[in-house]
Amino acid sequence: MKPVNQRAWFLVAPVLLLVAFTAIIPLMTVVNYSVQYVGMNTQFHWVGGLWFREVLASEKFWNALWRNLVFSGIILTIQIPLGVLIALNMPRKGWGVPVCLVIMALPLLIPWYVVGMIWQMFGRVDIGLFGVMLRDFGYNYENDPIDAWFTLVLMDTWHWTSLVALLAYAGLVSIPDAYYQAARIDGASRWQVFRHIQLPKMARVLTIAVLLRFMDSFMIFTEPFAVIAGGDPVFLSTELKQTVELGQKAAMSLIYFLIILLMSWVFYTVMTRDDGEPRTQGGVP
Amino acid sequence: MARIDLDNVRHAYGPNPQSDADYALRRVNHTFEDGGAYALLGPSGCGKTSMLNIISGLVSPSEGRVLVNGEDVTGLPTEKRNIAQVFQFPVVYDSMTVRENLAFPLRNRRVKSVEIRERVNQVLEIVGLTALADRRARGLTADEKQKISLGRGLVRPDVSAILFDEPLTVVDPQMKWQLRASLREVHRRSRATMIYVTHDQTEALTFADKVVVMHAGEIVQVGTPAELFARPKHTFVGYFIGSPGMNVFPVALDGASARIGSHAVPLSAAPQASATSKLELGVRPEFVKLGAAGIPAQVSRVEDAGRYRVAHLSMAGQAVAAMLREGEDVPADPHVSFDPVGVHLYADSWRVDVAGKAAQ
Q1: With contact defined as beta carbons under 8 Å apart, do A214 and A205 qualify?
Q2: What is the arithmetic mean of pLDDT over A69-94?
């Protein structure tokens, strides 16, 4: 019999400790709040699933969730193709490469709140360049929800499309020349080169791009908060901010967190379903 | 099926080439006859791949013309040249099945689907992928993928030429023999012009009818494997082909004999070679005899190469390799002599015909 040495657990201890402090304990605190009522003088009362039922029964929650989903959907349908298109047209060598990369990276370096403030001013119909230009078409993000949406989508696209483009570009430059040469030999059209060489080779980085853009856009908070400060809550995040009751906040946070986890898992599973194809040793039947 | 002429083709990758050294291809004039099986043999960086890419149109030459059946195609893009090419590393379309990969070049050329099916099945058979025909290309191993690449090169029935750029690099050794035999078989049946680039002499000699040896951006000799062995035109050919390569000694001329140090090696006639050129004597190890007469030498080691043994000796300060026949042993006090059939004289690395005029 092999000797059993329980002291091996000490090797795992540092990681356990780290994960406990970074994830498990904070999350469990929230779980704890979500099933209790916090009264005056910080007295805790067990309320079971009350807060969860309340959140799920609230129309505002469902409206916010729906808006979140539509927003993320719009963001992905615009930014992923646009980013790929930009990456396809970026130069592959010469002085244009560093210039392009730096220009593309600039919006990514600006803090979220600053982006919000920039667009809040940029879009103002009295002094903002953008707002004044569109004023005659009836644009006013402060009054018109559609215009507010339009501004938010535009702002997010301006802020984050570079990320998709840079990731797609990284995927594109890793394709060996021989693939393009073979495509020419095979008489492939420009579209076929994209469909059968570039897109499959970009698939992995695009999976990352889609996941990042989905999570970020689904959690959007700072920008709408900066642009539509004081207005009605629009998204789950802003809704959450305005919720007063601690238990309800916690319950909603957990639901929000689980939705993001679920959606990310679905995206990941769908986009990588071809990778793990089982294979048998070839050649011999 | 076509004859391909390279007419004064030169190519430099950098701008403003000044000297010969700036050219990847210095100057190439060569005709690939219709239906020939050629091997382009040479070390890495000698310009083999550049030459192949110029023929297929992936690279356009700095100077010179490429002719297919007498027609100038230098300005035509790859897709209009009707040439198939297989690359060193596998190129497959990941999202397609093996069958779709092979059908791809045909579909793009609007071949009828009945014909495509028939042709693809034939090629699947040739490259041994029938069992995997409907599998996605993505999950396959490197050598299976390379077979797909090879198959895509063979699938078009009407190509002028098929170019192979070291296609078996990633393939297992025993599979190499099998695939090379398949390629020979395809060539025998289709009579397509085939050009096979390799740096492996065995591969070149077993595949080709004619071997084109390249060195530093130039073609140094074109010939059958036997010619390359018996009469290497350039010391590089002697050295590169054969195992071990040819012995090359610096010599001085003395009438009808060549002097290695203080020892004379008789030549069949007095050669005419300019006194200023660098003279060398080339003798393949197969023609080096060890016996009691000749130039005294010391054995440094004997190498067992399986079917034969090679003795490495030092003679008048020069290293010599000699092939030992089966059962033959190195004599106690060895003297080196050369079989006159296998003695070649080189002036500035090019072979001089001992009968008189320089061979070129």
Answers
A1: no
A2: 94
